[in-house]
């Protein structure tokens, strides 16, 4: 029967045989899956694994710098690419969720492709695909949207004519985490909540601007740090904030304000396919709401999403 130790050992061995002296290029996302996949491949072929970590301008606050350092600490051969401007330009004026996903996916491929071409004789593309991705990538999202374009599954290989290596494509998330623990990946990476490839791009409803990203990053960081401070982070499966395209009236002193509303979403789940809203303590929600409204300029109202999946999805777009 399955153990993470046996899986790690046999996977590294078979990667060595399969890859030999070939070079592999891989995009890292900061998430558990790509980190574990990259570390297994790195154990098999060392510096022949070239990792690329792209700042798409849609990551959490300080995430790019922090994650890049974690990767360097793991010994991975990684380069960080600041492509914020390219992503914001590609997203300019777009409001439809699938159009935004496609623009983000396309831009990612362009940036990644340009970086990958700087490496001589790459033969393989490494991917952190896990079993549920294989299923979800063909699932139907909603009435107005046909198929969700999970850009981390499709797209790249056809364009780059690379063979694919995906050491985790038969595992579920909890198994990936066990393997990660087995190969000593730090817990701040292992226990990190899932985060969608399009990032904050699908949590800013409507069009995206650098200013909106900054507002949402500040809100999200208060929420996530609050969960960590109150020891609630590990009890929810995923959490984040959504910037609503809604302004509402508030008061500040004697003045009326007319500012943004944000939604907080936290869910419990096993695999993301179904989810319940997390029954977070009222006191915690009260503290976080006050901190957000007091500290984040431009936000005067916070609501908490109490919808379960199905029928509501985890993301709002
Ligand atoms: P939904 O919103 O469909 O999300 O309930 C289920 C899980 O998938 C993540 N998600 C995405 N991940 N690209 C991704 O890489 C996407 O376009 C995307 N859309 C949703 C979501 O964060 C949740 O973990």
From TrEMBL:
It catalyses: XMP + L-glutamine + ATP + H2O = GMP + L-glutamate + AMP + diphosphate + 2 H(+). Its EC number is 6.3.5.2. Residues 2-192 form the GMPS ATP-PPase domain. One of its GO terms (molecular function) is GMP synthase activity. GO terms for cellular component: cytosol. Catalyzes the synthesis of GMP from XMP. Homodimer. This is GMP synthase [glutamine-hydrolyzing]. The lineage of its organism: Bacteria, Pseudomonadati, Bacteroidota, Cytophagia, Cytophagales.
């Amino acid at each position: 029967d399955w153990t993470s130790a046996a899986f790690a050992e046999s996977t590294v061995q078979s990667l060595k045989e399969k890859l030999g002296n070939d070079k592999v290029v891989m995009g890292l996302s900061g998430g558990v899956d790509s980190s574990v996949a990259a570390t297994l491949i790195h154990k098999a072929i060392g510096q022949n694994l070239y990792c690329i970590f792209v700042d798409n301008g849609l990551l959490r606050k300080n995430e790019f710098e922090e994650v890049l350092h974690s990767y360097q600490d793991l010994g991975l051969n990684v380069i960080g690419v600041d492509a914020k401007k390219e992503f914001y330009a590609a997203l300019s004026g777009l409001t439809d969720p699938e159009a935004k996903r496609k623009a983000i996916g396309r831009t990612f491929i362009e940036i990644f492709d340009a970086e990958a071409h700087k490496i001589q004789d790459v033969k393989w593309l490494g991917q952190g695909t896990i079993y549920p991705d294989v299923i979800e990538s063909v699932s139907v999202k909603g009435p107005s949207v046909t198929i969700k374009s999970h850009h981390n599954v499709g797209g790249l290989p056809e364009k780059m004519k690379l063979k694919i290596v995906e050491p985790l494509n038969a595992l579920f998330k909890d198994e990936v985490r066990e393997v990660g623990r087995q190969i000593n990946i730090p817990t701040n990476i292992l226990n990190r909540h899932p985060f969608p490839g399009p990032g904050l791009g699908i949590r800013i409803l409507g069009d995206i601007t650098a200013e909106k990203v900054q507002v949402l990053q500040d809100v999200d960081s208060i929420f996530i740090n609050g969960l960590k401070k109150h020891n609630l982070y590990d009890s929810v499966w995923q959490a984040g904030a959504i910037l609503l395209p809604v302004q509402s009236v508030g008061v500040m002193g004697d003045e009326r304000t007319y500012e943004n509303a944000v939604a907080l979403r936290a869910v419990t789940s096993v695999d993301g396919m179904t989810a319940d809203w997390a029954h977070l303590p009222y006191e915690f929600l009260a503290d976080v709401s006050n901190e957000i409204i007091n500290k984040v300029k431009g936000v005067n109202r916070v609501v908490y999403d109490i919808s379960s999946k199905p029928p509501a999805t985890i993301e709002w777009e």
